[in-house]
C-alpha cells in the first residue's frame, strides 16, 4: 500500500525472518471510526493473514506505524483483540514535529 513496499522482502531476507504477505480481496465496507466484523471488508483479509502468522510463528503482538489515524488504529486493534494479540502502536499520537525531528536525528532519509 505504500511506496517502497517491494523492498520489504530484502529486510526479511537480511534478518533471516519469514515474510508473510497477502492480497486484499475485500473492499472498504465500513468507513466510520467504529468497526464490526463484516464479510468482504478489507479488514477481514488482514484478520486471515494475521491468524496464519500467529498459528505458524506463534507471534503475540502486532506493531503498527499509525501516528494519527484512528481509522487504522481501531481496525488493527479490533483484529488483534479477536486473535488474542497485543496491538503495539509506539508512534501513536506522537507530536509530529517532535517525531520528524527524531527521524532526522536518527538519520532517516525519506524521498518524496
Task: Explain the overall architecture.
The chain is mainly alpha-helical and 112 residues long. It has four helices and two strands. Strands 1-2 form a two-stranded parallel ribbon. Helix 2 crosses helix 3. The radius of gyration is 16 Å and the shape is globular. It starts with 7 loop residues before the first helix and ends in a 7-residue tail after the last helix. The model has no long low-confidence stretch (mean pLDDT 90).
Characteristics:
5% strand, 112 residues, 2 strands, single chain, globular, two-stranded parallel sheet, mainly alpha
Name the beta content range: 5-15%
Q: What is the helix tally?
A: 4
Supply Rg. 16 Å
Q: What class would the helix/strand composition place it in?
A: mainly alpha
Task: Work out the helicity level.
Answer: 40-55%
Helices and strands in order:
Blueprint: H1 8-15, H2 42-57, E1 61-63, H3 70-83, E2 86-88, H4 96-105
Helix pairs in contact: 2-3
Summarize the structure.
The chain is built from 4 helices and 2 strands.
